[in-house]
Automatic annotation (TrEMBL):
PROSITE patterns in alphabetical order: ABC_TRANSPORTER_2 (PS50893)
Species this chain originates from: Saliniramus fredricksonii
Record bears the keyword ATP-binding: yes
Protein name: Amino acid/amide ABC transporter ATP-binding protein 2, HAAT family
A Pfam family reported for this protein in Swiss-Prot or TrEMBL: ABC_tran
Length: 248
């Protein structure tokens, strides 16, 4: 049922620089309160898909030339990234973007820029972020640029949370992090999903980890969805095992 979907991407095509066709008709759905993974090798089009949703392609001379994207049943292709944040859809960019010369706490505060409720509500939400990420509380006064990769990834997610999102588009949260930190982050993602009802669409090359936490996955290859299904089914699929999990 369509109304149970928070996000629906329908047959989108994305072209960079007017000529480079990168997404060749990608469709995917995220149910309300779902955790959905986009999987695939480097260059398959995962980041492009997320940026198409959050309308961040223009800066890279990319555009959606076909198809449609609906968030909570409404077309969003023409909304600015900020309008989308106001509606509750925010992207955490690949490479854990934090402001290196601001403290962790200042970074979190910048995440509240679209909000109109007062500072008391913002303060309360910051406490909530600290409760999910105790490491961020410990490091609240540290300059983000001097914190670890894992802490920066947590800071980037925490910053997104400060906008009170309904859905977070999370690009490659595991990139460059030790397995146990990746696990710590995915546990928190799962918690946020269960307790706060935040939906997640995550792009991951770490198929194994992603399929342990997502409920559904889409596998992209050169701009096309080549397989999709329940995470459990994908984990047990022989081709997925061979090509993406390194087991055969
Ligand atoms: P990664 O893990 O590297 O982020 P990905 O699956 O997210 O990989 P994309 O970054 O979406 O893949 O890239 C998909 C394809 O689009 C690649 O072939 C890439 O070279 C190409 N591409 C990405 N950005 C641009 C751009 N600004 N201009 C031209 N081509 C681009």
């Amino acid at each position: 049922e369509k109304k149970d979907l928070i996000l629906s991407v329908n047959n989108i095509e994305v072209i960079y620089d007017h000529v480079i066709l990168v997404l060749k008709g990608v469709s995917l759905n995220v149910p309300r309160r779902g955790i959905v993974a986009i999987l695939g090798a480097n260059g398959a089009g995962k980041t492009t898909t997320l940026k198409a949703v959050s309308n961040l392609l223009h800066a890279e001379r990319g555009e959606v030339t076909k198809g449609s994207i609906e968030f909570e049943g409404e077309r969003i292709e023409r909304l600015s990234p900020n309008d989308l944040v106001r509606r509750g859809c925010i992207q955490v960019l690949e490479g854990r973007h934090c402001f290196g010369h601001l403290t962790i706490e200042e970074n979190l505060l910048t995440g509240a820029f679209t909000r109109k409720d007062g500072s008391a509500a913002i303060k309360a939400d910051m406490e909530k972020v600290y409760n999910y990420f105790p490491r961020l509380r410990e490091r609240r006064s540290a300059m983000a640029g001097y914190t670890s990769g894992g802490e920066q990834q947590m800071c980037a997610i925490g910053r997104a949370l400060m906008s009170k999102p309904k859905m977070i588009l999370l690009d490659e949260p595991s990139m460059g992090l030790a397995p146990q930190i990746v696990e710590e982050i995915f546990e928190i993602v799962q918690d946020l999903n269960a307790k706060e009802g935040v939906s997640f669409l995550l792009a991951e090359q770490n198929t194994n980890m992603a399929l342990r936490y997502a409920t559904y996955g889409y596998i992209l290859e050169t701009g096309r969805v080549v397989m999709d299904g329940e995470a459990k089914m994908l984990r047990e699929n022989e081709d997925v095992k061979e090509f993406y999990l390194g087991i055969s």
